[in-house]
User: Which sequence fits this backbone?
């Protein structure tokens, strides 16, 4: 996926006012979405930023808009209602390493499935799609 990005704007003060100088440059670049071990999403300037195509792996729990943290009480209620996967239970459905299970916080996917955010078929497709990166 390529994106066209680049504007440069310089304001030059003149004796009688201000004029804007600008230069438009075309540069094709690759879109990056940084993720780290156990963290598929993060907040940037008050907005949730996530990579595309991973619906059901994020926003599993309610987030407090002011603290930008999970609502702990709601999270505990969801876990009590839907439960959490153990590695053994998850690996019986999807044979992944324990490291992959931990990297994607897969224990919480039982809540995501219970809430209807993702289903086993879609999850299996994602695992197959990203398996090359999970070796």
Assistant:
């Amino acid at each position: 996926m390529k994106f066209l990005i680049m504007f440069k704007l310089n304001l030059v003060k003149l004796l009688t006012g201000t004029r804007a100088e600008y230069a438009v440059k075309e540069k094709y670049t690759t879109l990056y979405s940084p993720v780290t071990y156990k963290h598929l999403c993060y907040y940037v300037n008050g907005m949730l930023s996530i990579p595309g195509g991973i619906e059901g792996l994020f926003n599993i729990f309610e987030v407090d808009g002011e603290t930008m943290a999970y609502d702990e009480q709601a999270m505990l209620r969801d876990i009590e209602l839907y439960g959490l996967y153990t590695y053994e239970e998850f690996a019986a459905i999807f044979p992944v390493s324990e490291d992959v299970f931990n990297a994607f916080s897969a224990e919480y996917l039982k809540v995501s499935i219970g809430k209807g955010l993702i289903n086993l078929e879609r999850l299996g497709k994602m695992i197959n799609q990203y398996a090359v990166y999970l070796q």
